[in-house]
Amino acid sequence: MKAIRVHEVGAPEVMRLEELRTPEPGPGQALMRVEAAGVNFRDVYRRTGQYKGQMPFTPGMEGGGVVEAIGQGVAEIQPGDRVAWAAEEEGSYATHCLIRADQLVPLPAPVSTRDAATTLLQGLAAHVFSHRTYPIRPGDVALVHAGAGGVGRLLVQMLKLRGARVIATVSSKEKGEIARGAGADETILYTEQDFAAEARRLTEGHGVHVVYDSVGRDTFDGSLAALRPRGWLVCFGQSSGPVPPFEVRRLMDAGSVYLTRASMVHYMETRQELLHHANAVFDLLTSGKVQPRLERTYPLIEAGQAHHDLVSRRYAGKLLLLP
Fold first, then answer.
1. What are phi and psi of 243, to 5 degrees?
2. pLDDT category, 276, cuts 50, 70, 90?
């Protein structure tokens, strides 16, 4: 097998394509032939050392492919099954990888492995955050940062399906069109406008019910300022860096607001929960109610370029590696 390996933290160039022995699945595992691997900010955080872990490692926690072999005790899937994963294990930047069988999701016939790798991880996040972390109600006003990005664009679509009014922040007029195309009612060009002040203006001074913030350090203060009393700040990423420590009294001063640093894995601790959310995402995908945006694909050897493109926000849609 071939795989991207990282032996030390650093720039995208630390990722190197190497040849390894194809592993045998152990108890509860499946050996996957990877047909598409999603490129995500979590992979960047691991490569740069923001997220700690064992070295060396193969990045990638999201993919779609075909089961080649199963280990002892596996009953959920069989060799030849088409499946997708947004797993706890890394290793998807490869031609083959081992995944716990209970984290594999069977694909409906209309969904290709490439569609699944484009949609599953970000779709699961958007579904969990909009349905469970802060369950949107009709008439709620939501502010979505990076509304043209991968999770942001899917969040906008799901929030609109639940009856919300959606305000999206974007970095350019072109991305504003993408966010509006996904259903955003208003967009804020944060490179030219104070997004917190603009969100308050658009809500006649009341503020929004919820902010979905994947940016972190650069937006945290403004996100708090954009909330109405008892509003919710749902942080789920840190593309600008981690939020510095702060005095918890600020939550009271902002109007007794709520803050959570959400991870979808804590909402899918059982296979039943995983399948519930995954099947809901695939239903939305096959019905056309949500439309992901596949922007560009790369061969494995260009994983470094994919990371450069992701961090630069050159593209608004999903980036995939095709082993």
1. -75, 130
2. very high
67-83 per-position pLDDT tens digit: 999 999 999 999 999 99
Q: What digits encode the pLDDT tens for the residues 293-322?
A: 898 999 999 999 999 999 887 787 899 999
DSSP one-letter code for 84: E
Backbone angles phi, psi at 150, to 5 degrees: -60, -65
Q: What is the pLDDT of residue 16?
A: 97
Burial of 315 (C-beta count, 10 Å sphere; 0-12/13-18/19+): middle
Q: Which of 216, 213, 197 is nearest to 205 (CA)?
A: 197
Q: Tell me the three-class secondary structure of 92-115, residue by residue.
A: CCECEEEEEHHHEEECCCCCCHHH
CA–CA gap between residue 281 and residue 268 (Å, rounded): 14
At CB < 8 A and 24+ separation, what contacts does 135-141 make? 136/162, 136/163, 136/164, 136/210, 137/162, 137/163, 137/164, 138/162, 138/163, 138/164, 139/163, 139/164, 139/165, 140/164, 140/165, 140/209, 140/210, 141/165, 141/166, 141/167, 141/203, 141/208, 141/209, 141/210
Q: How far apart are CA 169 and CA 147, in angstroms?
A: 6
- The rounded distance, in Å, linking the Cα atoms of 30 and 136 is 36
Report d(CA 71, CA 148) in Å as an integer. 41
Q: How far is it, in rounded angstroms, from Cα 70 to Cα 32?
A: 9
CA nearest to 20, candidates 70, 58, 54, 67 = 58
